[in-house]
Structure formats: structure tokens, C-alpha cells
UniProtKB/TrEMBL annotation:
PANTHER family: CYTOCHROME C-TYPE BIOGENESIS PROTEIN CCMH, FORMATE-DEPENDENT NITRITE REDUCTASE COMPLEX SUBUNIT NRFF. Pfam families: Ig_CycH, TPR_CcmH_CycH. This is C-type cytochrome biogenesis protein CcmI. One of its GO terms (cellular component) is cell envelope. Keywords: Membrane, Repeat, TPR repeat, Transmembrane, Transmembrane helix. It comes from the Bacteria. InterPro entries: C-type_cytochrome_biogenesis, Cyt_c_biogenesis_CcmI, Ig_CycH, TPR_CcmH_CycH. Residues 301-404 form the Cytochrome c-type biogenesis protein H Ig-like domain.
Amino acid sequence: MTLFWIATLILVTIACVFIAIPLIQRKANNDTVLRDELNKAFYKDRLSELEEETQEGLVGDQSELIADLKQSLLDDIPEQGKAVEARQMSTLAVLIPSVLVVVLSYGLYAKFGYYDKVEQWQNISANLPDLTRKLMAPAGQGVQLTDQEMQDLTLSLRTRLYYQPEDSTGWLLLGRIGLANRDMQTAVGAMKHAYALEPTDGDIQLGYAQALMLSDDEMDQNQARTMLERLASRDYVDLRVYSLLAFDAFERAEYQAAIDYWRRMQQMIGPNDARYQMLTRSIASAERSLGQGSDAAADSVQVTISLGGNVSLPADAVLIVSVHTADGAPMPVAAARYPLSQFPRTVVLDDSNSMIQGRKLSDLDSLMVRVRVDRDGNVATKQGDWFGESEAVNLGQPVEVVIDKQY
């Protein structure tokens, strides 16, 4: 900030000089000196005229006329006080505009220059190393960035990357922050920059694929799958690669592929890892979706969903499947949300999807299923949504629902 104030002082001084120079020059042209020069020229001309008149005999006493001429010249000399006043006026004529320039420059900057915000921004940028160390602290140390610190870290990173756009690590970190904040525009943009700088780096490829996978654009998702499959074909595969592939396969109802990826992850981490049981539960859920689980027929609901011929679906909608009591009560016993994909499709709901505490889906003897295409992600609003519902069936029987009605 010191350099900033020095620079402003230099600029204001230059402005004052440019204002003062014309005023000084103009005053010099109208100064008393110019008046004296005119009086001297007039005096010399009058002496020449008196000399000619004396030679012609028109003047009797030349010396008396010369004395009167000198006296009139002395009378025309300005008083000392007036000269001092003129110099003072000259000084004020230069000083007042200069003061106005200084006052207006710094006054307007104080009012409209957002000096406090600029100072805050520079302080945040200077705090980048501390924020980065706090972010990268090992898990278990109880160090977690607040929302404000995450915003500060993002701002300071953007500032650094503006001056150092070739820093691929910085772009990668900014992309991960965007993913953590669910800011997909920032995440995809930052990861794209990092990938352009280091296209062969495994961490950057994985981060870019993760960002593209969470994008709403189908082309981005296809590009992410291609990158992940390329990473999965290497001799050493990061566990996160299989995790992303399994998640994507499960979301697209490719349950067998998801099971294969999760089993590979189990082989990599071993049964002693705390994540092993979590993967086992994920595999069991996918098997139930395939109808392979031992209790699938008895304790779950397999729903096959198709679309009516007149249904048009918005690209950003989601699919909501809910299980109700056989009498069609509005409150669902179990429900699940799925991304839109190809139809017809089959989903399976079980006790893990129960909505009412103390009441499981498997407790029902009979039930009915409603399926709705939710356009805005808000289950409370239904206007314009497409839906369908089944007849009452017994628990364990397969259910078919056709989406052909609109609220």
C-alpha cells in the first residue's frame, strides 16, 4: 500500500504542476515589468519629439518639459503595496487550484474508491499460505475451515492465479474447493485450466473427471467416463477412480458394473479397513436392485418404470419413487430420488429407503407405488409435473408404473 500512496502523490503533484504553469505564465505576461517597458518606450519617443520641436523653434524651454515628462513617468510607477498585493494574488491564483486538486482527488477516492475493500483483499491475499496449510492439515487434528475462510481462500487463490496462470497446482486446489462448495462452474473451469497445463498428471485427470462427472451436461459426463476408464486401465489405479466409476454406474442403473468396481475396491483395501463393510452394504444394495439378494423378493419392492407416448421430460428433472400404503395415503412409507436416464428402467426400494421412524417398508403387507418426474427439485410443488401410480399389490410382487399423467 505504501507504493500506492507514493504513486498517487506523484500523480497529484504532476496535476498541480500542469495547472500552475499556465497561471504563472499568464501572470508573467501581465506583470508590472510589461508596464514599465511600455512607459520607457513612451518616454524615449517623447524625448525624440521634443528634440525635433526644439530644433524647429516650437519649444522655448526644453529642460522644463523633460522634467515634467520624468515626473509623469514616476507617477505611473505602482505603489509597493500594490506590487506586493499583486504578488500575493499571483500566489493565491496558483495555490487555490492546487489545493482543490489535492482535496478533490483524495476526497473522491475516500468516497468512491473502496479503499477498505482493497485493503481487505490484499490482507486476504497475504494470508494464502496460512489458509492453505489449514486446509491441507491431516484429518483428525480438528482443523476445519469456516465458510468465511473458504471464501477468503478462494479469493486469494484467484488473485494468485491471475498473476501466476501457469500454476497447475493452484488451479487443481481451486477446483477441489469448487467441488467442496458444490460450485460446479468454478470446479469445472479450474480443473480444465489445470488439465490444459498438465494433461498427464494423474491427480489432475482424476479431479477433472470428478468435476465433469458432477456436471449436468451429458457430453461432460461422457468425457469423464472416458478419462476414468483410461485411468482404470493403468498398472496402478487410484481407489477414487473405482469409486467414481461405481457411483456413476449405480446412478445409471448399471448395477452389475457398480458391483464389479466395489469388489475391486474391497480387494485393494482388505477386510480390515473400516470402509470394507460400507462397500459390502453398497454391493448388497446393488444386488437387491438386480433382484439377486436373498431377501429381495420378500422385503423389497421392485418397480419397473416406463413413459407414456405423450410425455416430454425436462433435462434437469429428477425421478421420485415413493411407496405408500395400499389405501393411497399421501405420506410415503419409503421414497427414493434418482437422476433421469433411459426408460423403461427398474429400481428397487427396501428398508433403507424408509421415511417414517419406527416403520419399515418390510412391515407392509400390501402397498402401492407412485412415480413423479419433479422439474424443480422441490417435492412440495407439483404443478406441471408428470406422474404415474400403480394398483395395490402385495409386498414382494413386482410393480409396473407408467408415467402418463400431469398435475
